[in-house]
Amino acid sequence: MRRVLFLCDRPLGIRCLEFLLTADCQICGVVSRGGEEVNWWGRSSVRNFCEEERIAWYNLSRSLIEITEECQPDLIISVLYPKIVAKDLVKKIPCFNLHCAPLPEYGGWNSTLWAILNGEETFGATLHQMSEGPDEGDIIEKGSFRIPRQVTNIELYRLSHEDGYRIFCENVSRLISGRYSSTPQAGPRRYYGRTDLPSREVCPEWGRERIAAYARAFYFPPFEPAYMMIEGQKIRLIPERLGGEEILFEKRNTWAPEERTEIERGKRGKARG
Asked: What are the pLDDT digits (tens) for 184-223?
């Protein structure tokens, strides 16, 4: 039975780990964030899950090379792991990564935000072999679905994770057995760094469509949305059809949605939240 070292993060990582338990393999270890760490999606619970299932758990603060020497895996599978796997490991052990965005078009971070700002019509997750560069390597499966009209960042994020989960479940047994096929990445490559976000501030002189795109691209509770400054006041922009979710922001974040601009219907006025 082949030994798998699983690197993961976020709820999708736990979902994939649960499915991996049903596969014909031995999970020799799981690497993730600390068990008590609280993130925007809630408390990281990978460690607790591993303790319940009696799986060896390692904090990602440890050296991955040291962990592999201890675990002796036959392969490594990564799902939303927030660190880059060392080149020496990639050369030594078969490594696979589930990236919840199309490759090579959307390598890196915050892909759903960029896809909305770039006006993409389709999106999807990508399962690929790891290589020496981040989000490079041959593609095993690349998903594709149509982006719903007026989609927000958090909605597209959830859709991409559902597509990623499907791809993981359909392919993980082939990864373990080694009976998979892959093709080189083709086409223009783009990589967005973690800090490459555009400003949330919207210019009032922009056209309605561009302003609406920014409102949707930055709608990702509990983070602050897009905004514009008018007469010294910060007007936070929330897509009109989601105005009722202002309560969610108010409960989960430090700022209160004092005003909302109903840009989706072209209103110029302001509505009190």
From this structure: 999 999 999 988 899 999 999 999 999 999 999 999 999 9
* Nearest Cα residue to 2 out of 59, 77, 56: 77
Question: Based on the number of CB atoms within 10 Å of its own CB, is 193 exposed (0-12), middle (13-18) or buried (19 or more)?
Answer: exposed
Q: Following DSSP, what letter does each residue of 46-81 receive, concatenated?
A: HHHHHHHHT--EEETTS-HHHHHHHH--SEEEEES-
Q: Which residue has the tokens 């080694």?
A: 178
Helix (H, G, I), strand (E, B) or coil at 217: helix
Section 245-269 average pLDDT: 36
In the block, tokens 């999106």 appear at 123
Distance between start and end Cα atoms, the chain? 58
Strand-strand pairing, 107-108 and 191-192: parallel
79-110 CB burial, b ≥16 within 10 A, e <16: bbbeeebeeebbeebebbbbbbbbbbbbbbbb
**Can you tell me the distance from the alpha carbon of 85 to that of 229, in angstroms, rounded to the nearest whole number?**
42
- Domains (ranges, CATH) in the chain? 3-192 (3.40.50.170), 208-272 (no CATH)
Q: φ and ψ at 267, to 5 degrees?
A: -75, 140
